[in-house]
Amino acid sequence: MSRTFLSMARKTLLGVTTALFVLHQVELQAETDHPNSTKALEVEKVTQIIDREITQKLKDQNLQSNPLTSDAEFMRRVYLDVTGCTPNQTEAQAFLSSQDPHKRAQLIDTLLQDEGFGTQQGRVWRDWIAPQELPSEGNGGNQPIQATRNLGKWFADQFNQNKPWNQIVHEVVTVDGQLKDKPQGLFYSLTGTDTGIPEPAGATRAITSLFLGLDLQCAQCHDDPYKEWKQTDFWAQAAFFKNVQSNFNGRYFAAVTETFGKPTGKGAKKITTRDRSNNGLITIPKDSFENAGKVVEMTYLLSEKIQVEAKQPLRPILSEWLTSKDNPYFAKAFVNRTWSYFFARGIVEPIDDMRPSNKPSHPKVLEVLTQEFIQSKFDVKHLVRLILNTDAYQRSSLSIEKEDKKLRESFGRYPVKVLSTDQLYDSLRQALQDPKLDLRTYDKKALRRFGESSPVGDEYTEFQRLFETDENDSTHFTHGIPQFLALLNHPQVSSGGPKVDKLIKAKTEPQQAVNELYFETLSRPPSPDELDEALEYIQEDPDNKRTYSGVLWMLLNRSEFMLVR
Fold first, then answer.
1. Tens of pLDDT along 192-216?
2. 417 with 478: CB under 8 angstroms?
């Protein structure tokens, strides 16, 4: 092995090691009611308000914000955050070569129209809803792996259609029917028990956390001693879900319904609650820490009691209040959670603790974005467009140890985030140009000859298990020895994949090959020193297959590739 390549490898491993430790009212009104008709000038006005508020907060803390990041870093960042994948060479070169002063805003608009936007947001919401260990069906051990993926695809379709957020949530909360027709029906099984059976407490915890930004979990068993929530607050919400039923078809849950008669779906067996209290009432269960057996009346959170008929479905009643523009939590919770996706922390932190006593770090920023979101009729793309066009989002992620924590918490610099499992998988497939990337570690020949154990899941499932990240903190670098051994040693990575084969077949000159490999991985051209070092290494070995693969291997194992920054 040449000294040059050893130098490159050392830098790569150093990067890997380093990566382990990286760890008001609105001041404007829309001129039209159409959710997608906001003019660029209006976006600029809103972003100016946001940046002014953040700058003032930094000034009050005697902090200096980072400068705007380079075009190359911004481009790679926004592609990963919005579409879940790095740009290809053509896209990257087109953006970097453009002299248009508005090219960043134009790129944001372009990416919001890309199907990758919905795909990425669908995966994000899938992971926020689904527990890391999926529920298992009885002793059979069957898990709804494909159904969970279908849930993510359902969300992706909604986001790509730019369906208003209140409509999306309404369709989740009130879902009624078979899972094959309504993938969002899995929501109640994923948030129920570990056996996938929907139950009122699980639905209450999930819906208040995800859609209202409120943490009522402790109040399930007793009054929360540290927050405003009482046990009756929790069970008054749970009463809305008392009649939710799951129908079992012999393999997994086939349907979710709130009927009071026959189960939905041919051959399905109804699984129902044992609570016999009247509609609109719920009995606190026996396993509760306090007040077991007490009957609680259904109410909107911290609001009046609701009168209902004997067999009236309750979730539509809840959804009408939940998704209303007048709900003090609904729009604000989505704004805060969306902000946290991009900045790795919310304006209110934790993001599901939006009680009155937990104040936002930047109240006016949260209020401006919330009012914009409501006035745009819950237009998700409009909200994302506003966030991405701020200086706060486009700042450098350069970390200065002194005051660094305060600077990041005040949004004075962009956080360094770990590629999510899906972002890494798609970016690896693109860099290697291998749509069938399979990093499972088993020998197919040994499997046939010696009966070696085969992987439990398909290539995507096993990749998810290997490169699982912390969904609650995207700055937490969870990868260790198994993950790095896979990237350093797996033949599908070290061989260069179809990408290198195409370079060889096209008889690509070394300088052009190095340039392409850098663009396909790091979304930028090599620096002069990087180019000289790579060319020196290539020239020492006549086997371009080996040397091009070595350069690509080095790039894929750099911390720069593994991070969003």
1. 877 777 889 999 999 999 999 999 9
2. no
Locate 398 and state its tokens: 């350069």
Structure tokens at 1: 């092995």
- At residue 385, what is the residue type? R
Residue 383 counted as domain residue: yes
Regarding whether 183 and 70 lie in a shared domain, the answer is: no
The residue among 289, 322, 355 that closes a domain is 322
The contacts of residue 295 (CB under 8 Å, 6+ apart) are 277, 281, 282, 283, 284
> How many domains does the chain contain in total?
3
Q: Could you give phi then psi for residue 523, rounded to 5 degrees?
A: 60, 35
Confidence of residue 184 (pLDDT cuts 50, 70, 90): very high
Backbone angles phi, psi at 471, to 5 degrees: -70, -15
Spatial strand order in the sheet of 253-257:
177-178, 253-257, 245-248, 269-271
Residue 433, by phi and psi: left (phi above 0), alpha (psi -120 to 50) or beta? left
* Domain containing residue 288: 134-322
- Which residues touch 17 (CB under 8 Å, ≥6 apart)? none
Does residue 30 lie in a domain region? Answer: no
Q: Tell me the whole-structure pTM to 2 decimals.
A: 0.89
Strand ranges inside 326-443, DSSP E: 417-418
Q: List the one residue out of 117, 216, 197 whose CA is nearest residue 159.
A: 117
Tell which of 365, 381, 413 closes a domain: 413
Q: In this structure, is residue 516 part of a structural domain? A: yes
Q: pLDDT value at position 262?
A: 47
Task: Kindly state whether residue 377 falls inside one of the protein's structural domains.
Answer: yes
What integer pLDDT is reported at residue 511 of this predicted model?
97
